[in-house]
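Fill-in record for Probable alpha-L-glutamate ligase.
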Amino acid sequence: MKIAMLARNPDLYSHKRLKEAAEERGHQLDIINTLRCYMNIASRRPEIFYNGSKLEGYDAVIPRIGASITFYGLAVLRQFEMMGVYPLNESVAIGRSRDKLRSMQLLARDGIGLPVTTFAHDPKMTEEVLKTAGGAPVVIKLLEGTQGIGVVLADTERSAKSVIEAFRGANVNILVQEFIKEAGGTDIRAFVVGGKVIASMKRVGAPGEFRSNLHRGGSAETIRISPEERSTAIRAAKSMGLNVCGVDMLRSNHGPVVMEVNSSPGLQGMELATGIDVAGKIIDFLMKNAQAGKTKTKGKG
């Protein structure tokens, strides 16, 4: 099998592990810098060029598209889909998961547990937004943030109003969510591949840090999740339409609540915490499922 991986940094742990896992199984995996691709959008003959050569003969594509290049990365991925190349995650599904508001709406539609989440355009609605979210403390999130960037904990009504009004005054879209105090600065990441949770870990925030992201100094350890948490993670992946994702959940007094569904989850923290060959399971999924033209969307919006 010949696999293309859309990624800008071939030296990242996740990208090296996926390449190793593919080659161990006798496959060819080429790491392609997403931004160096250019496309010929010709009627019935979609083509992608890379460093002056046409890309062809690929059976599958693994999109590892950074949040900062989502728009261009999804355009390249759609072109692969139109050429009949099987994507690990489809462009439409990645687009859903990258839009925090849309993803929350889809999860809510499917009855998946969420923290109370509010969204408004008018800064004059600040008091009503805070009241709907249950009052301070609240978590305020930029719609486009990743790895804990653009996430603020406002402890008091006064600080919450100041932050919300500042963001809205700068014309920045935000979500306001209830703060799940009982989670105690820890969250759970469940790694879903092909509709099954293949690994899970508990992440604990650094001292004085309410965010548990490993990029922000958090630590991780393996954890046994409950059947309800397992079901929530699988349903969240299905809501987004993702074959592979990391589902981040908090343990609240009313059951697991989903904070985010990550379409390009890092492998390092999960593999080191659990000892599970996550990269190998992803390649095995591709081996079993990759068929030419099997994309559901075929590049449709």
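KEY FINDING: Residues 227-240 form the longest helix (14 residues).
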